[in-house]
Amino acid sequence: MSVMRFSSLFTSLLAVFIVANLEKPDSNSYGLTPSDASWITWEKQAFGHSLKKFQAREFLYKKNLKKRIAQQISQYKTGLKTNYVDNLPELIVHESKKYGYDPLLLTAVIITESSFNNWARSNRGAHGLMQIRPATGRELAAEVRVQWQGTPSLYDPEINIILGAYYLNKLFLRFGDLGLALEAYNHGPSRLKGYLKKGHRPKRYSRQVFKKYSSLLSSQI
User: Fold this and answer.
1) What pLDDT does 79 receive?
2) Which residues form the domain of 26?
3) Residue 41: what pLDDT?
């Protein structure tokens, strides 16, 4: 099994583990619950565990992945023409695999951000499927060498997902924690860093994504 495939599997397991522990109220001085603080230990255990028992389930999981993503998309009004909608599952899978994500995780982020409404715009000036601000989009486009034509580029579903998937991975590499990466995606990395310096760890957005991700996993078991 390749590193990328295992990374996707591990992401699935990690999200399920987090969701299962969301309701525990205890916290320490850093704003972490006991389950949060134990992520590193659990991570080591997960990476060290034999993968054989997961292979059969992983095969079933990936067998109809694009079809299941398409079924999720069909529940929302995307505002896109049919040919664009039909290409979204392939695009989500392709961009997820670049960074070792489970495609359903990226699907959960898109649902949380825009409910697959390609023309969504937030009151903070974020646009498109993954709700990216123009200033951020311009920087990301330069990094991944995507042609940037201003805000309209964010309403191109392919460009938006390419930039959003890359940005989430960039934040994960910076913070070393998927939950924090999601919070940075939502709040912005500078604001999140300020929260952490004050001993506060935001969790609302990451919990929303993990709950949606868990429901997507459960719906296909």
Assistant:
1) 97
2) 3-218
3) 47
Provide the 10 A C-beta neighbour count for residue 64: 12
Look up the CATH number of the domain holding residue 133.
Answer: 1.10.530.10
Q: Kindly tell me if the per-residue pLDDT of 46 is higher than 80.
A: no
Among 113, 143, 158, 183, the active-site one is 113
Distance of CA 188 to the CA centre of its chain: 15
Active site residue 158: no
Number of domains into which the chain is organized: 1
Distance CA 154, CA 134 (A): 8
